[in-house]
Amino acid sequence: MQHALALARRGTGLASPNPMVGCVIVREGQIVGEGFHQYEWRDHAEIVALKSAGEKARGATLYVTLEPCNHIGRTGPCTEAIIAAGVQRIVVAVEDPNPVNSGRGFERLRAAGIEVVTGVCEEEARRLNETFACWIRTKKPFVTLKSALTLDGQLALPQSQKKAGKNPGKRSHDAWITSDPLLTDRSGLPRRKPLLRVVLDSKLRLSPQSRIVKTSDDDLLLFAAVPVNSTKAHKLQDAGVELIRAKTKNRHMDLPSVLAELGRREILSVLLEAGPALNGAALAASIVHKLFLFYAPKIAGENRVPFAIASKLNVPPLRDVRTQLFGPDIAVEAYLQDVYNK
User: Fold this and answer.
1) Which helix (H) or strand (E) holds 2?
2) How far apart are CA 256 and CA 282, in angstroms?
3) To the nearest 10°, the Cα dihedral for 322, 324, 329, 330?
């Protein structure tokens, strides 16, 4: 199953809006077939593995990171292909969070006389597809708030010491909301569709001559809380920026409606990397699922709060808190919402 999970991760940036899935087929202690899912290839991981195994799949054990589908979508049911191939036993990491399929794949396989074992490496498999689980159940993307801080809790260091943390993870997201003036995907790694750069600009202050607009390649989406039919708006559109007038609530941009629009565009995950006002607004709107905080071993000595939020804000207790090192920086990862048990 660990090998199947490693295969699934190869679909990072290539499987969305489908889940990342890896599959390994074992017969008499030997791997006879394997595969992972890429959206453009259409075939699910099980089908890729079955094709590579051929007749050797008969009587074998199939390991897969997600419950096989038992419905017709872009492809036929994987359950029927598994049954037809003569697989004797199947080991699955986690149940499919898609309500259309959840549990039905297991039922079909068991009804066909195939032994089904579940829950192997379940937590790891859940984390792998938490963004898909969120989107398929709510039709809104999974939001990770990332912030680089100093040891005294400041959002930014003085200009001469500005760099406070690393910036991993963009490739695993479909969209990026940030205040960075460049806002470009510099990972150099393959992805099926460009990283969507999202700007929340309530009063449409963004200049058509700004660096972010000049780097636009049909990958820049701007939400504004004012009409988008002005002369300036037309100039931005001519420069390749897509404009949307966002809904407002209490005179502020309605962030849940922004996420709903991104979800409609099959954006499964968003990396939010912004200033204290937007960070605080996101927490207040309860749209953040995960926190990724990077602490640099430095003292800023200033008074710049990372999250500008109301004192009465009821932020839920953090769950599944983990720490890890990125060079000299300490990363704290924690969850605010459980997308699997909603």
Assistant:
1) helix 2-9
2) 9
3) 30
